[in-house]
Design brief:
The chain is mainly α and 383 residues long. It has one domain: Na+/H+ antiporter like fold (Up-down Bundle). The chain contains 17 helices and no strands.
């Protein structure tokens, strides 16, 4: 009986999310705003803060996680390895990770919070939400522009910076330095292995598979490839990195196969379903009551979150030879916070380092930076 009730609830949640995501899409087209903005707005209305039709639970969290993995897989599939892994991306990513960390920690401390809490909040601001940025770039057809490639490469770098910072701050309360060293070592081994071996080995494996089994059905090649995507995601999460980082790297590897069209074509259908629910989930998490209880903290953290990426990443891009407009686009595009911020905030909440009030504030900062970035990027690229 309990199992039937759970199944009924899951079916209800999925149906509501998909139907209302379509309304969000129609709203975005009607108002001329990015599709992501309309769907997130609908998610806020569906959540506990307004109509209460849905609440953020384990099921929706899993669906959202799958949506983010699909998003990052398609982002990696659309870019060339050599164009995003370079000195420019490394510089922009490091600056874009460390500057927000310092700014967030200082601002939180200024509001009277203790050192560990301030460090944790600073850590939530380090990483760019790669899923949000890549979704908008795909929507506008800008994935192959120089600015998009730099943003994606830098976002991968500052995701790693953010998760390494999480490893540091999670070790801080107990001074567990050995687990910290282990995490950092595993992360480096994983990234180096994919960079030097996976880029060449994975395409060969997939091409051999398609040659022998793809003749039966092209769907088998797609299924095999998606198995690799989720396998990479699992490995990344198992060693302390974000699953989305593994999905992105898998996409980069699969982009070099002779049959990458299978993944582009099939992935678009998965994107239409799962990423719609991903954006709905972002809206559901937003608690409007946090506006009243933590208004000035939210304003201050949002300002720091945007300013540090805008000026830090924009300045770094400018130093790398980009013109003023493209540097501005890079700075703006690196501003949204999302999955990694939620991961760090939830971890801090689970070990009692940050309160529910702080957690709600971080979620709202992520929402604000996301919406502002989506609207601003569309206008900047439009000009």
């Amino acid at each position: 009986m309990v199992g039937e009730q759970i199944t009924t609830l899951v079916l209800y949640e999925i149906s509501v999310m998909l139907i209302f995501a379509v309304l969000g899409y129609m709203l975005s087209k009607k108002t001329g705003q990015p599709v992501s903005v309309g769907i997130i707005f609908i998610g806020v209305l569906l959540g506990p803060s307004v109509f209460g039709l849905l609440s953020y639970n384990e099921t929706i969290a899993i669906i959202a996680r799958i949506g983010s993995i699909i998003l990052l897989f398609l982002a990696g599939l659309s870019v060339d390895y050599s164009s995003i892994y370079n000195k420019k991306a490394l510089l922009v990513g490091i600056v874009g990770g460390l500057l927000p960390f310092a700014g967030g920690a200082v601002i939180t401390a200024a509001f009277g919070f203790d050192l560990i809490t301030s460090i944790f909040v600073g850590a939530t601001l380090t990483a760019t939400c790669l899923g949000i940025t890549s979704a908008l770039l795909r929507e506008m057809g800008k994935m192959n522009t120089e600015t998009a490639k730099l943003m994606l490469g830098a976002a991968v770098v500052d995701d790693v910076v953010g998760l390494l910072v999480l490893s540091v701050v999670s070790a801080a309360p107990s001074f567990a330095f050995m687990p910290l060293i282990t995490k950092i070592s595993l992360a480096i081994i994983f990234l180096v292995t994919i960079s030097f071996f996976g880029i060449k080995l994975v395409p060969r494996i997939v091409d051999v598979f398609d040659k022998n089994f793809g003749i039966v059905s092209g769907h088998l090649t797609f299924t095999f490839g998606m198995g690799i995507v989720f396998g990479f995601s699992y490995i990344a999460e198992a060693i302390g990195l974000a699953a989305i980082l593994g999905a992105f790297l898998a996409g980069v590897c699969l982009s070099n196969t002779l049959y990458s069209r299978f993944f582009h074509h099939g992935g678009e259908y998965l994107e239409a379903v799962f990423t719609s629910m991903f954006f709905i989930a972002i809206g559901i998490v937003v608690e409007l009551t946090a506006i009243v209880t933590s208004f000035w903290l939210i304003v201050a953290l949002s300002a720091v979150a945007i300013a540090t990426k805008l000026f830090g990443c924009g300045f770094a891009a400018r130093k790398c030879g980009m013109n003023r407009k493209d540097s501005l686009i890079v700075g703006v595009g690196m501003a949204p916070r999302g999955e990694v911020a939620f991961i760090i905030a939830l971890f801090g909440l689970s070990i009692g380092v940050i309160s529910r009030e702080i957690y709600s504030s971080i979620v709202f900062v992520s929402f604000i930076t996301t919406v502002i970035t989506l609207v601003a990027l569309k206008r900047l690229y439009g000009k």
